[in-house]
Design goal:
The complex is a heterodimer of chains A (112) and B (113).
Chain A: E1 4-7, E2 10-13, E3 19-25, E4 38-43, E5 50-54, E6 58-59, E7 67-72, E8 75-80, E9 89-95, E10 102-103, E11 107-111
Parallel strand pairs in A: 2-11
Antiparallel strand pairs in A: 1-3, 3-8, 4-5, 4-9, 5-6, 7-8, 9-10, 9-11
Chain B: E1 3-6, E2 10-12, E3 18-25, E4 34-39, E5 45-51, E6 58-60, E7 68-73, E8 78-83, E9 92-98, E10 102-103, E11 107-111
Parallel strand pairs in B: 2-11
Antiparallel strand pairs in B: 1-3, 3-8, 4-5, 4-9, 5-6, 7-8, 9-10, 9-11
Classes of the chains: A mainly beta (112), B mainly beta (113).
């Protein structure tokens, strides 16, 4: 199975700061069709996960432009500029290139 | 708007089975895969598998073969997942999602004697 390694495990920030989360894959996530099925989710406390980014860098409907996804191959990053209170929770990267689909272990974003 | 309404929490005994539902609305049910995801208390997310409501085609994570069974009822736009031979390790919240874009609220399954 593809292993997605997220770092850091937790991230303490001040509101208005930038936050950066890394997701490294044990295999390339570029599919044979040229698409990279790497997504980012945010799970707020007591809620279902919500899609933020799909296809490495595409923001889902309604996601603010302070969320920026980047990367290729095996290395991916989610940057959140100007962290706001509603951004707090656990972030997961996810790959749907290889079966079985797998999630990273999560990065908890919390206030300093 | 797309909505997935899941059934209520379950308390079940070890060795038994449970069947949960995921009722879809706001889109053409047969056009998109329904995915099922497991989240143990305080833990991360695991992909269980998927079903194509139009064809009934299923794809299971090898880890959940024999544990989970997916079905659909097209007449009511509802997807189901049955979990069998339950153990305490099956205690978790189970989510359904359509295309991973829209998620249900989750079903808490507690396996305890």
């Amino acid at each position: 199975d593809v292993v997605l390694t997220q770092t850091p495990v937790s991230l303490s920030v001040t509101l208005g700061d930038q936050a950066s989360i890394s997701c490294r894959s044990s295999q390339s996530l570029e599919y044979s069709d040229g698409y990279t099925y790497l997504e980012w989710y945010l799970q707020k406390p007591g809620q279902s996960p919500q899609l933020l980014i799909y296809g490495v860098s595409n923001r889902f409907s309604g996601v603010p432009d302070r969320f920026i996804g980047s990367g290729s191959g095996t290395d991916f990053t989610l940057k959140i500029s100007r962290v706001e209170p509603e951004d707090l929770g656990v972030y997961y990267c996810f790959q749907a290139t290889h079966d079985p689909y797998t999630f990273g272990a999560g990065t908890k974003l919390e206030l300093k | 708007q797309v909505q997935l309404q899941q059934s209520g929490a379950e308390l079940v005994k070890p060795g038994s089975s449970v069947k949960m539902s995921c009722k879809a609305s706001g889109y053409t049910f047969t056009s998109y895969y329904i995915y099922w995801i497991k989240q143990r208390p305080g833990q991360g997310l695991e992909w269980i598998g998927r079903i194509g409501p139009g064809s009934g085609d299923t794809n299971y994570n090898e880890k959940f073969k024999g544990k989970a069974t997916f079905t659909v009822d097209k007449s009511s736009s509802t997807a189901y997942m049955q979990l069998s031979s339950l153990t305490p390790e099956d205690t978790a919240v189970y989510y359904c999602a359509v295309g991973f874009r829209y998620w249900g609220q989750g079903v808490m399954v507690t396996v305890s004697s």
